[in-house]
Specification:
single chain, about 150 residues, about 35% strand
Length: about 150
């Protein structure tokens, strides 16, 4: 009900542009197979990619790499340009949600550290691209994961 009221008010007053976040789509090769790293969100425990807000003094890809390190302990080669974008509604502490566009950067040859800032706050797991696409809630993110087939080394 509140969401519908907010939508009506925004349509009357004009919509604010969506906020922007950055994400790292971390992959690795094991033999001939490609694996995609997903982590759990701290709030709901659903499977997501490491993501966060742009950072002052860092490029968007640099911010995505920093999020991969902080949230998953992942390091690797990050693309300079996004491999895709998706949109989701981010729930705020107030109970309202805001529309967020996410620029996704590919981190290839990802390696994991056992010691990283959010260790113990999230789970992390390697998935096949098909299983990763099924595990994430955001359809746009699933499409990006599947669009990278075959993911290059």
């Amino acid at each position: 009900m509140i969401r519908r009221l907010l939508d009506v008010m925004q349509s009357l007053l004009g919509r604010r542009p969506p906020a922007l976040q950055v994400a790292a789509l971390c992959t690795r090769k094991t033999g001939e197979a490609t694996e995609v790293l997903l982590i759990t969100s701290r709030g709901t425990g659903r499977w997501v990619t490491p993501k966060g807000w742009p950072m002052r003094g860092r490029s968007l890809s640099g911010a995505a790499a920093q999020e991969a390190w902080e949230e998953a302990g992942a390091t690797g080669r990050i693309s300079k340009r996004p491999v895709g974008y998706f949109n989701y509604d981010k729930a705020l502490e107030s109970g309202l949600a805001i529309s967020v566009d996410v620029a996704v950067f590919h981190m290839g040859k990802a390696e994991l550290s056992e010691d990283y800032p959010e260790n113990g706050q999230r789970r992390r797991r390697w998935f096949s691209p098909e299983d990763a696409a099924k595990a994430v809630a955001e359809e746009g993110l699933a499409d990006i994961i599947l669009s990278l087939q075959p993911i290059k080394r």
